[in-house]
Fold this protein.
Amino acid sequence: MLFESRELHGKFDERVAGHGFCPVCGREHSIALGHAVPEAKRLLSALLESRRVDLEVPDEEADPRLSIEPLFGEARGHMFGVLVCRDKTGATGVLKAFSGQMNGVWLVPGWVPPLVDVNLFEQTTAGTERYIKRLGRKIDSLPPDAPERAGLIERRRNLSRALMKDIHALYRIPNFKRQLKPVTEIATGKGGIPSGTGDCCAPKLLGYAARHSLTPLGVAEFYVGRENKARTKRNGAIYSSCKGKCGRILGHMLCGLEGA
Ligand SMILES: [Zn+2]
Ligand SMILES: [Zn+2]
């Protein structure tokens, strides 16, 4: 069960946790931390105590790929998030997400799935990715002045670009007006859409809520693991939604949500 029932206590935290510009309404939409901070702390404790992300399975069935130990080493940390929401009956509860994949794993029981259809993603990317890697090996094996080298590099660049387009086409982004639109149509701002747009915790959580008629009341994203290289994230700290990726899609995603 992804939606875990929870009674809400304490004060509503008004601080903005996620936001983006909505071109349809011509203004920012935002969501507050609300009651999500205690839930984020609760999840953080559970992760630090069990040392793994597959919290729902017994120790002997734990997937070694889902250990959190690498997050404290060379791999460095990872973002996690919780969304406090209300279902149609008025009951309140919480959803949880990890950003992107955990060590190549998209789906873990108890955690919201990605916005993209995982099977479709694998089908779309696997062949081209293998081919791009093969091209890379071929390029590396050639002397720098080999005549066919430039052509192969050009070919690889075009393939990567085409693959990125194919991946973006797979991301269909819901909102609270029951609209489902391709990320290429709703992303605001200039320049190409960064890879991984839609894979952060906030869009995963909001997308799941929108698709399951849950009303978001607050969200909190936090970092677990060794400080990132840029030294902007530290273990256990809560961060508002990122600007580069989420800033471009949260305006659409939050559109139609009461109070946003
Ligand atoms: Zn983000
Ligand atoms: Zn709007």
Observations:
- The pocket of zinc ion (ligand 2) is lined by residues 22, 24-25, 29, 255 (CB under 6 Å).
- Residues 224 and 235 are 5 Å apart (CA to CA).
- The first strand starts at residue 4 and ends at 5.
- Helices lie at 36-50, 118-141, 149-170, 183-186, 201-211, 250-253.
